[in-house]
Amino acid sequence: MPFAQPLEIQNPDFTKEVMAQIDQVIKQYAGIPGSLIPVLTACQEIVGYLPIELQDYLSRGLNIPGSTIYGVVTFYSFFTMVPRGRHTIKICMGTACYVRGSGEILNRIQAGIDLKVGDTTKDRRYSLEAVRCLGACGLAPVVVVDDKTHGGVTPDKILDILSRYE
Amino acid sequence: MSKLNAEDLKRIRENAKKAISLREGEAREYSKSTYRSELLLCSSTACRASGSLEVKDTLEKELARQGLQQEIRIVETGCNGFCAQGPVMVVQPEGIFYQKLTAKDIPDLVEEHFLKGCPVERLFYKEPVSAEAIPRMHDIPFFANQHLIVLRNRGVINPESIDEYIAREGYTGLCKALLEMTPGEIIEQVKISGLRGRGGAGFPTGLKWEFAAKAAGDIRYVLCNADEGDPGAFMDRSVLEADPHAVLEGMIIAAKAVGAQKGYIYCRAEYPLALLRLDIAINKAREYGLLGEDILGSGFGFDLEVYQGAGAFVCGEETALMQSIEGKRGMPRPRPPFPANQGLWKKPTVLNNVETYANVAQIIQNGGEWYASIGTETSKGTKVFALTGAVRNIGLVEVPMGTTLRTIIFDIGGGIPKKRSFKAVQLGGPSGGCVPEAFIDTPVDYESIAKVGAIMGSGGMIVMDDKTCMVDMARFFMEFIQDESCGKCTPCREGTRRMLQILEKITHGHGEPGDIRMLEELSAFVKDSALCGLGQTGPNPVLSTLQYFRDEYEAHIYEKRCPAKRCPALIDFVVDPEKCSRCGICFKNCPVNAIEWKKKEPAWIDKAKCIQCLSCITNCPVDAIH
Ligand SMILES: Cc1cc2nc3c(=O)[nH]c(=O)nc-3n(C[C@H](O)[C@H](O)[C@H](O)COP(=O)(O)O)c2cc1C
Ligand code: FES
User: Among A29, B66, B171, B604, which lies 20 to 30 A Cα-Cα from B465?
Assistant: First the structure.
């Protein structure tokens, strides 16, 4: 039975400090109706992803069926079940960016650092996501790396921009 | 601070008015402001990305170095609207508009403008055709042709200061609604105003409120839809970042009208700055007693929470949004029962869009008749559009209903750049359609736009030039719909997948006779049978491109040719030596060195190396590559 073992043993990402933070989140929200999504958002912020063993742990802590949690995690694109790279590249594929050439930028990234949408490089340096409109259409095409928004990106500039993120 | 009553609010307003009087264009001699000048620096998402925070730091240092910090004040405002020119700054009271500022420009600017009194011309806006510099903001055509109601505080107030909002007559409408009006009177005024929902469907707001007010039950909810899923639209983000209190005020008035005690703002996670400013605004409003129990001593109580979305377009649909707030998978459910009767937690619920709420306080303050005097017969007031794509002046535009597309794109938007020509404008995003050149004089109101095969939608307006392939655009929107289909109903889940496959086949050069007919049949079927608006409107981009650009589909299918040269599978990547101007631009732009070129000789593409990235075609000045 997977849940017989404590999380720390199942997965080295769950250190004591991480567990303490997760328990804090559970305590804050347990019993409040409609709190599953905020809990998952908070946990993903702490751990970086939502592996199945964590969902299982939350299921017991919040008294919500594991199937419900899994259903919610897989429904929303914001949640991920696999760890991300050190830097997350979000390339905007919204209409404004697309008509200004974000498709070509994406091709260039895929060719340049051999990274597909939804994947992480082997060295866990980058993860690549295609997102729909970041609300910065005025600067299209837009690429966000971690929290920094890069506007007016061109296919020629993109690899250079990415190389700045170690 | 203890809770305010109407008198306290007036006092705050009077004091705050003095502080911001320079910004309202009051002459320096009469102004009670303690400053000589105010620098209104845009610090919303777009301008931040272009470096407005660095500009601010340098400005602060430079003003201090010149000993001007007591005389000149920097105010960080929300989105000014002219996003592509960012970072932008307006100097008041003169109204001088500076654009594309960098930290390097600042020492010079401070010395020339604020010490010597000579504004710096090289940082002015330049008229794109004549290159004439236009110093004052209100003379720039982009601003001059707009009519601001929803965006009236943009670029004027600091969105994190409730006092500045109050100074601009903020919370006046609320005072009136809570202290002088009955719920029935509020609903009556909103009905008279003719306000219709700005989230897409255009349902009359007053009527929606009336249904909810009449629904049985004592617990009711007021929700705000800030999910803004339409890719290519950023009106709601901008309102939330520039003027969050306007939305709160509208929601509190709605709550009083329908008798709700609790509200939620459902905001997408992709908008961190909007979320932050909402949070600040709500806390301030609570501190002032404008949220909570017994607001302004009226006996009426209401409170609000922000709910952060987790990335699903379909959650913008009203029933899905409510499921999501309940913590479930955000899947739509059939209506009826309508949310006005059974919404969040099965209680009567009103859901409106951000922009809809941002109109409400002014309608109450100035009366429904005032609002109804703006716009057309069936569409009242103004509408905010996010003008993007192949247009010179990218940004946020607010115009009275009934303004023509031509005015918006050519007068305000400045037309099409790079010597290209206008092809079509896309309205309403993945649920909408495109309007070709022949209908560019169509006025924007709900009915006229629908007549030409598009929808008003939430306000995304994407201009396309002759380099846009309409089949590829249809494929792009269908991919979006397919990706975001929640999978609950079969017509949407399977039908859109099948449509996408056909469109991909066509753009990849494998189109066959019969594909067009199949697309039309599937469109009709999905529209008729899908459960929610996502599927019911999803085929629209395909239908409208088929209506106006059928020849492009036919060229792809029968001639295996992409007229706009955007579909790599249908391009040979061969340089026409006759046409080639021998300039070498393609050679310099090719990322994989697949092009051979020597001075005075035509270029040649090595297909073994070519990765079909289109950079040569995009950059060729004489269109010599086919
Ligand atoms: C698939 C889908 C997505 C939608 N997304 C949004 C959205 O992002 N923002 C919005 O305000 N309305 C959206 N709507 C419309 C809402 O369902 C609803 O009609 C609207 O929020 C009501 O507010 P209004 O009457 O003020 O327009 C969407 C509808 C559908 C079918
Ligand atoms: S379409 Fe890319 S930011 Fe809006």
Answer: B604
